[in-house]
Amino acid sequence: MFRYIAALFIALLAAPAMAEVPQSVQQMQLSFSPIVKRSSPAVVNIYTKRVVKERAMLSPFMNDPFFGQLGLGLMGPMRDRVESALGSGVIVDAGGQVATNTHVIKGASEIRVVTADGREFEAELVLNDDKTDLAILRITPRGAPLPALPLGDSDAIEVGDLVLAIGNPFGLGQTVTSGIVSAVARTGMGKTDYGYFIQTDAAINPGNSGGALVDMQGRLIGINSMIFSRSGGSMGIGFAIPASMVKAVMYAAANGGKMVRAWSGLQAQPVQRDMAEHLGLATPGGALINKVNAIGPAARAGIKEGDIITAIDGRAIQDPEALRFRLATVTLGTPVTMTVWRDGKSREVTMKTEAPPEIPAPDTSTLTGRNPLSGATVANISPAIAEDIGGTAQEMGVVVLKAETGNAARLGLTRGDIILSVNGSTIGKVQDLKDVLSTSRTQRWLVQILRGEKVTNLMITL
């Protein structure tokens, strides 16, 4: 009995200390205010105006189906209406660079930035990257120097770290909320082409978009982008774009104003549990390579179909979205080290990143004539074109870039559709398509397209 009590006493001494209640006035008065004072001046309000077209109302019964049948629902001419919207942004450079979300300024004809001290600036849109939902604005400093928020290392944060969200929810004015990092490397959200988010329970609401997610050193670790909500308000699940992607977009804005991402020539799929067991992986994860472009840098580095990429530069890759994200944040020309699982062993491969090439040449053409595709602007698929339209699995073929007029619009073609065949003739290049359209003498046309991963047959009679 004595030995049992002694062992229990020793175990209690060795156990980690439990959390304690505040023991002094000083501990009870601990506050985030020093961090807020350093960080909040760099968070701005963004006001936008956009012009939308609407039809003028000539009759109060215009939208009533009953009176419309009687001819009383008169349709007026189209007119312009100005819509106002608001959001948040972050000054990321004292020279006047402001980071925000693409959806905050989308379609805006006028953008105004208002700083925390009340100064107002006209803003110029420098870079708008839909694929990441990030935009860079530029304002011209005047008066007092602009406060800028330093970028932190978003890869160093961990689940449980304390964070602050700063923005302009519901137009109330600058608001600060606190919480923790609920998850990192959150993928599969479907919001952007490079969905890889920091999840937090700090309250984020409409108007917070484009605002700052700040760590306990007052550094920017993310741009608040969206929430999961059934009510439209905060439910404790918010998502921020990591600072590493913000840094990449800032670099592009300062170097030509165009976002060009590293191309690997790889296509990948998730690793399921049964695959992991079969291939000898301890846990499912990584990106299973199912296609390697023969002219791509990954092929030259020795990557093969069936390889599983588990890390890039020591950072874990859990799925194909993580692979795309990591490559998108690398400066072109920089070599990366890929950890590859092959034949039951792990090895490292070095790949030099490069821009996607325009091979073959695009041969961009707007189709004309009496055919079902007239009005469509098409091009040969190349890695550069595939990146521009959102990444197609095809290595050759003809892709629709625009179809806003003519028969192509009536047929329902959209940007990114790949034309596979016309009346049974396989289409490999733009010239093939032109030849088929110019030589066919028929009133009924069958156009086969690839939209996403689904092949669709479209019939049209002219």
What do you see in this structure?
There is one protein chain. Strands 5-4-1-2-3-7-6 form a seven-stranded antiparallel β-sheet. It has helices at residues 2-14, 25-28, 33-39, 65-69, 102-105, 243-254, 273-279, 297-301, 320-328, 383-389, 406-411, 430-439; strands at residues 43-57, 75-93, 97-100, 110-114, 120-122, 124-129, 134-138, 162-167, 175-186, 197-200, 212-214, 220-227, 238-242, 266-270, 287-292, 308-312, 315-316, 335-342, 345-352, 365-366, 377-380, 398-402, 418-422, 425-426, 444-451, 454-461. The chain has twelve helices and 26 strands. The chain has four domains: 39-66 and 77-138, Thrombin, subunit H (Beta Barrel); 162-254, Beta Barrel (Thrombin, subunit H), CATH 2.40.10; 266-352, Pdz3 Domain; 365-461, PDZ domain (Pdz3 Domain, Roll). It is globular, with a radius of gyration of 27 Å. The protein is α+β, with helices and mostly antiparallel strands and 462 residues long.
CATH superfamily of the largest domain: PDZ domain
Query: How helical, in percent, are the residues?
Result: 10-25%
How far apart, in Å, are the first and last alpha carbons? 97 Å
CATH architecture of the largest domain: Roll
Give the low-confidence spans: 4-13, 67-73
List the helices and strands and how they pair.
Elements: H1 2-14, H2 25-28, H3 33-39, E1 43-57, H4 65-69, E2 75-93, E3 97-100, H5 102-105, E4 110-114, E5 120-122, E6 124-129, E7 134-138, E8 162-167, E9 175-186, E10 197-200, E11 212-214, E12 220-227, E13 238-242, H6 243-254, E14 266-270, H7 273-279, E15 287-292, H8 297-301, E16 308-312, E17 315-316, H9 320-328, E18 335-342, E19 345-352, E20 365-366, E21 377-380, H10 383-389, E22 398-402, H11 406-411, E23 418-422, E24 425-426, H12 430-439, E25 444-451, E26 454-461
Antiparallel strand pairs: 1-2, 1-4, 2-3, 3-7, 4-5, 6-7, 8-9, 8-11, 9-10, 10-13, 11-12, 12-13, 14-15, 15-16, 16-17, 16-18, 18-19, 20-21, 21-22, 22-23, 23-24, 23-25, 25-26
